[in-house]
Amino acid sequence: MTDNGGLRSPASQTTLIVNPATPTSGTALYRIHAGGDQVTTSLGPFAADRYASGGTTFTTDQPIAGTQDDALYQTERYGNAFSYAFPVSRGQQYQVVLHFAEVYATQAGQRVFDVAAEGNKVLDNYDIYSKVGAYTATTERFTVTVADDELNLDFSSLASEGGVDNAKVSAIEIYALGTTTPTAVLRLNAGSGQLTTSVGTFAADQYAAGGSVFSTDQAIAGTEDDALYQTERYGRFTYNLPVPNGQYTVKLHFAELYWNSTGQRVFDVAAEGRTVLNTYDIVKKVGPLTATIETFPVTVNDGQLTLAFTPGTGGVDQPKVSAIEVLEVAPTTVLRLKAGGDALNTSFGRFAADQFFAGGSDFATDQPIAGTEDDALYQTERYGNFVYSLPVPNGPYTVKLHFAELYWSAPGQRLFDVAAEGASVLRAYDIVKKVGPLTATTETFPVTVNDGVLSLAFAPGAAGVDQPKVSAIEVLSADQALPAVAARSSASPWQPFLWPNRRSTATKSNSFPTHLPMAASPSSCPLLFRVKSPTPWSLHWARL
């Protein structure tokens, strides 16, 4: 901002500080301080520079205008051509925020460069000085969809493309915006048979107790899927939907097929005992013979999602529903590390090379690993007395630790503890006792980070034997992703399946172990078993 006819001089300048807005949605997966060490800012902590290839670093102590976080813009990575490759989940959409300040050029045209994301140019002949002048913070943001397991950013100042001097960047932020279509765990066509619609296939009505069914051939407004809304279950009824424990989004589909005035049908709906619709009146909301949807979150802790439709205290006539969807609230991967090994692509995403650790040693084997299709993930380990300090934005996370016993063959030969953010999450943990040797298993737990660093400490503990170990680490932004339940095509109830407790000596060629890692790709797992839990039986979700 200038006055005095647009002239730039100390006497005529007015300082305007603009704090870049944090995205309204999405999780900050990465904040990287290009060319510098970790720094705490008003936006949160930025980790030390990493994931870069090529380029050189530079630092100044000059003050930076347009920001209260001078230190973030006083360093840079620069060069004629350099790149960053961030491990991410394939198929997801991300927002990238690039932070710049010109700390070298003194006039427009002295630094001109391009930036490409996933091979597509997002900044063309970019000139920081031309935009904001020298020693002034500015940001550029854009959205990108990643098809593989790396988000690639390429910085170049090639003369053939109009480049001058060197490309540069001061800091990088990457936010996960998630997938545009959530995974459907279960879809039911209430009151009728299986139906294919524009949003997917709805299974025949099932899992219901009570109520009656009704259908019409009247046209339904507000939808291209009339048939989905032309049937219903009505009366006082309950759906008990078998789903793995976790967080879900429930969508209820309605259309009033019988009444045509407000107040003629009023009812309540409860999910897991909590009222989600109170004195609900379809006609009051949208009128008769018109499609509408109600959406709400729900958490399941007992393997069954209960939806109860009742008249309630203000009820008139009978409750009803046309269709039900249960959608998976999938977590976003914040960080995946392959302990003791190099970067690796797996069936459920890319794991970065081992880093952020202090202490311990690494070990590898070529022995096959049971209970997984990703043997290589479990064939390496970090072992000893060690700590991982993972740079993540403050907030709640789910941590998933991957283990396989590569050395010992009997229970009691390796016992250790694990603490997350100072709180014990595994005590006297014995991998062989749980699943046997050379068999994959995982442990999952929630953790909240308040200081920008997620600390995972592996120690022998009071009952320790030999040395702690881990094969891989995942940090997720929400509750652990769980396998989707494939709806049965008939209305028969989903039957439990029992499996005895025992130490598994299974190999991949003859059977599966008692404990299996969660399926990474629910859509590829059409058959699931539910395993009951009273001793001497165990409750598991197994994929065959």
UniProtKB/TrEMBL annotation:
TM region positions: none
Domain Malectin, chain residue ranges per copy: 30-172, 185-324, 334-473
Keywords annotated in UniProt: Carbohydrate metabolism, Endoplasmic reticulum, Glycoprotein, Membrane, Plasmid, Signal, Transmembrane, Transmembrane helix
InterPro entries on file: Galactose-bd-like_sf, Malectin_dom, MLEC
Pfam families the record matches: Malectin (PF11721)
Coiled coil spans: none
PANTHER family attached to this UniProt entry: MALECTIN, PTHR13460
Family from the record: Belongs to the malectin family.
Protein name: Malectin
Organism: Hymenobacter volaticus
Highest classification ranks of the organism: Bacteria, Pseudomonadati, Bacteroidota, Cytophagia, Cytophagales
